[in-house]
Write a structure and sequence with these properties.
Chain A has about 240 residues and is an alpha/beta fold. Chain A contains eleven helices and eight strands. Chain A has a domain of about 140 residues: Rossmann fold, CATH 3.40.50. In chain A, helix 4 crosses helix 5, helix 5 crosses helix 7 and helix 7 packs parallel to helix 8. Chain B is globular and about 70 Å long. Classes of the chains: A alpha/beta (about 240), B mainly alpha (about 290).
Chain lengths: ~240, ~290
């Protein structure tokens, strides 16, 4: 799980193009989430974590000593598996990222809330109850709120760790729809359990197995004509 | 086999019943003696008179000076214990590597295990002279020294309960905060502490409850002069100290003077009872929130 080869990391990242959706698929425990978390250095908090190789964004090594991890995470946002809004109001959830940057101007905050919630397709549902607790929202709404909260910081890349796995089919469809729309402005990397989902929303797909990236190619090729036999076996449902 | 089970069951039930009867017994003693007292002294005087001099010729039975002394030392104790205790809790939960954590927690438990009489002498023989060197005009017995040491005594309680509350906050909230580019400090104080606030409030209320009932430290270091004041530099007397003073003194059993301690005890019981109930209520609300 923790072992990620330098070579894989390198080769792989060079291949993610801006404004695309890249999906990571693979069975549970294959390392796809751990791999995703390398991109915004969320693994740094694991005591025994170490990494070889280079991951870079816009040509800059993100594990370089001079990189401020807080700045990096403003640029590379993350949406988690379970909706995790703060126990605060909807408004405060969205502006959290701005508040920690010290932005106090009410006009900027208000505008950000509206823009971010609209981008996350949640504005119409919550515009009259921005002061209500975020915990009162449904699971699907909470997840869109978490996406809005991430968008408010204006990242360029969004990492999504199985963002729809805890949601019902209708909420899942809304999230997928949203991912499709966000593609025009952001580069999205999504981990998913659900192969159909990967097929529906992604341009590129990487297949992980046993801590290793087996294959990475256009989604269409991965699902119809993969080069590796293990990939073929997985996408056709023969194991996993 | 069945009889053995029955005996064990009866034994367990007996143990549970003993605690219930002890509580009922305490309340009964306080109430019956207290009612006796209030048949001789009006409850209005008790609550409004600003002097407490039951042991003097000119008798006044106003509980306010004792309440003021109690709250003054309690306030000082919490003012010391909350910032220090919460800081330690945040440090242990958000920053400390595992080995530091496993070193600090047992040390705090040792602090909790120090007998309060030792704390009392620590206040009187170390803290008071130190404060006197900083603040000229400070009396040998005073609320400040006793309050500070009482605060040190309560630190483990606040730390341990606050740490539990912080630990109970879902890890996903911390990740969300880090993921947005927060520093550790911002995550700790803008996300974790607010999310744990009800548990932290409970720790403070239980700390207050402990400080209100604390006896030895104030008896040794704060003096025995009932005084309606908020000046922390002069001797005062707390409810608990008064009870010690009378029950160890030469007041005749059954006299009105003697009965004052039950009235004082009743007042103390009411305070801690209310505080414990508030904390219980908040704790229940808190548990609902994350289930």
């Amino acid at each position: 799980m923790n072992k990620l080869e330098a070579k894989n990391v390198n080769v792989f990242y060079g291949a993610i193009k801006p404004n695309t959706v890249t999906a990571f698929i693979g069975p549970s425990g294959c390392g796809k989430s751990t791999f995703l978390r390398l991109f915004n250095r969320m693994n740094d908090y694991i005591d025994v974590f170490r990494m070889n190789g280079i991951i870079s964004i816009d040509g800059k090594d993100i594990y370089d000593k001079n990189i401020r991890v807080e700045e990096l995470r403003k640029q590379i946002g993350m949406v988690f598996q379970k909706p995790n809004p703060f126990p605060k109001s909807i408004y405060e959830n969205v502006v959290y990222g701005l508040r920690i940057q010290g932005i106090k101007d009410k006009k900027i905050l208000d505008e950000t809330v509206e823009t971010a919630l609209q981008q996350a397709a949640l504005w119409e549902e919550v515009k009259d109850k921005l002061k209500d607790s975020a915990l009162a929202l449904s699971g699907g709404q909470q997840q869109r709120l978490c996406i809005a909260r991430t968008l408010a910081v204006q990242p360029t890349v969004i990492l999504m760790d199985e963002p729809a796995s805890a949601l019902d089919p209708i909420s899942t469809a809304k999230i997928e729809d949203l991912i499709y729309k966000l593609k025009s402005k952001y580069t999205i990397v999504i981990v998913t359990h659900n192969m159909q989902q990967a097929g529906r929303i992604s341009d590129k797909t990487a297949f992980f197995y046993m801590g290793e990236m087996v294959e990475f190619d256009d989604t269409k090729i991965i699902f119809t004509n993969p080069k590796q036999e293990r990939t073929l076996n997985y996408v056709t449902g023969r194991f996993g | 086999m069945r009889t053995k089970e029955k005996i064990i069951e009866a034994g367990l039930a007996l143990a549970a019943i003993i605690t219930v009867f002890t509580t009922i017994g305490i309340i009964w003693v306080l109430l019956s003696q207290g009612i006796d007292f209030f048949s001789e002294v009006s409850i209005i005087d008790f609550l409004t008179d600003t002097q407490w001099t039951p042991l003097f010729a000119d008798k006044h039975f106003g509980i306010l000076p004792l309440v003021a002394g109690t709250f003054l030392t309690t306030f000082i104790a919490i003012a010391v214990a909350l910032p220090v205790g919460l800081t330690i809790a945040v440090y242990l939960n958000e920053y400390a590597p595992r080995n530091i954590r496993s070193l600090v927690k047992p040390l705090l438990e040792i602090l909790a295990a120090v007998p309060t009489v030792v704390y009392g002498f620590f206040a009187l023989s170390v803290i008071t002279p130190f404060l006197q060197s900083l603040l000229p005009g400070m009396a040998g017995f005073n609320a400040l020294s006793a309050g500070i040491v009482m605060g040190i005594m309560i630190i483990p309680l606040i730390t341990s309960l606050s740490e539990d509350a912080l630990y109970a906050v879902p890890k996903s909230l911390r990740e969300a905060s880090y993921g947005m580019g927060s520093t550790r400090l911002q995550t700790a104080f803008k996300v974790m502490v607010p999310a744990a606030s009800s548990g932290i409030i409970v720790s403070v209320i239980l700390g207050i409850s402990r400080a209100v009932g604390e006896t030895m430290i104030v008896a040794i270091a704060a003096g025995q002069q009932p005084r309606l004041t908020i000046n922390p530099m002069v001797p005062i007397e707390t409810i608990t100290t008064y009870i010690v003073q009378v029950s160890t003194g030469d007041v005749a059993h059954g006299s009105l003077e003697y009965k004052t301690i039950f009235a004082a005890g009743l007042a103390l019981f009411v305070f801690t009872f209310i505080l414990n109930n508030i904390s219980y209520w908040i704790k229940k609300k808190f548990q609902e929130k994350y289930e």
